[in-house]
Design brief:
- It is an enzyme of class 4 (lyase).
- It is a single chain.
- The chain is 23% helix and 17% strand.
- The protein has six helices and ten strands.
- It has a domain at 9-173 and 224-243: Ribonuclease Rh, Chain A.
- It is globular and about 55 Å long.
- Strands 1, 3, 4, 7, 8 and 9 form a six-stranded antiparallel beta sheet that branches. Strands 2-5 form a two-stranded antiparallel sheet.
- By secondary structure, the chain is α+β, with helices and mostly antiparallel strands.
C-alpha cells in the first residue's frame, strides 16, 4: 500500500492519498469529490455514492479498558450518505467470517497484529467485532464491490477495507492531539466541548463529532469526502454531515485507562 501521511494536518486542510496492493481496483481519471459533485457521475466504481462521506471512528474505552493506555482504538470506517443518513448491511452474501484467516491468507499478518492491538472489542471478541464492522459498513462502500476489481480474487475487498481503515487511523492520533492542547485523561479534571473541538480542529482543519456517555468522552468521529475510490482515491477532511455530537458544552470527563503504554508501532501522524 502506498500512503502519503498526514503531514498536512498542521496546515489545516487534510488530503490523504491511499492505495492498496491487494488486487487491482478500478482505474479512475477525472474524478469528482464525493458529496461535492456538480454533475451526475455514472461510474460507480470511481465515485462513492450514496455513501459519500466516510467516517473514521475511534473509541476511548476505560471500563473495561481496551487498547494501550496512551492510544485511542479503532471503531470502524463508515460510509454515511451526504445528508447524514446511512445504509447498513448492504450485501449478506459478503458477510465474511474468519477475518484473521482471510488477512493471513492475503499475507497481511502485520495488519492483523496491528488490529489485535488497536482495533479492540470491549467485550473481548475482536473477531466478531471486525465481522460486524465489515458486514454493517464495509459492504455498503460501493467502490469496493467485487465488480470494481480487475482480476478479482475472493474477499480482497475486505482486505482493502481493513487496510484503508488502519492507515487512516495511524494518521489520526487523537490522544496526542488532545495532549498537545493540555487535554489529558484525569479522574478530577473536566473539559469543555469547545476546547476538545479546538484541539482536534487544529490538527485536522475541520470539526469532528464527539461522543459522550454519562458525561464522559468515549468516541471521536473524523469525516472525509473521497476523490475517486476508497482503495485508490484521496481522502479529504470535511465538516460532519449533520450535528451528531452528544457531549455537553462543559464538564466533559476524559477518564484514564489503566494498563501498559503503546509499543513503538503506536499510531503516528498528528
Amino acid at each position: 500500500m502506498s500512503f502519503s501521511g498526514f503531514s498536512k494536518f498542521a496546515l489545516g486542510s487534510l488530503l490523504v492519498a491511499l492505495g492498496v496492493d491487494a488486487g487491482t481496483p478500478a482505474s479512475c481519471t477525472n474524478t469528482q469529490i464525493s458529496c461535492q459533485n456538480t454533475t451526475a457521475v455514472t461510474d460507480s466504481c470511481c465515485f462513492n455514492a450514496p455513501g459519500g462521506q466516510l467516517l473514521l471512528t475511534q473509541f476511548w474505552d476505560t471500563d473495561p479498558v481496551t487498547g494501550p493506555v496512551d492510544s485511542w482504538t479503532l471503531h470502524g470506517l463508515w460510509p454515511d450518505n451526504c445528508d447524514g443518513t446511512y445504509d447498513a448491511n448492504c450485501d449478506s452474501t459478503r458477510a465474511y467470517t474468519d477475518i484473521p484467516g482471510i488477512l493471513t491468507a492475503a499475507g497481511k499478518t502485520s495488519l492483523l497484529r496491528y488490529m489485535q492491538t488497536y482495533w479492540k472489542d470491549n467485550q473481548g471478541d475482536d473477531e466478531s467485532f471486525w465481522e460486524h464492522e465489515w458486514s454493517k459498513h464495509g459492504t455498503c462502500i460501493n467502490t469496493i464491490k467485487p465488480s470494481c476489481y480487475t482480476g478479482y480474487t475472493s474477499k480482497e475487498e475486505l482486505v482493502d477495507y481493513f487496510e484503508v481503515a488502519v492507515q487512516l487511523f495511524k494518521g489520526l492520533d487523537t490522544y496526542k492531539a488532545l495532549a498537545a492542547a493540555g487535554i489529558t485523561p484525569s479522574t478530577s479534571k473536566t473539559y469543555t466541548s469547545a476546547k476538545i473541538q479546538a484541539a482536534l480542529k487544529a490538527a485536522t482543519g475541520h470539526t469532528v463529532t464527539l461522543g459522550c456517555s454519562n458525561g464522559t468522552l468515549k468516541e471521536v468521529w473524523y469525516h472525509f469526502n473521497v476523490k475517486g475510490s476508497v482503495p485508490a482515491g484521496e481522502f479529504i477532511a470535511t465538516e460532519p454531515d449533520g450535528v451528531k455530537s452528544t457531549c455537553a458544552t462543559s464538564g466533559v470527563k476524559y477518564l484514564p485507562k489503566s494498563g501498559t503504554k503503546t509499543s513503538p508501532s503506536s499510531p503516528t501522524g498528528l
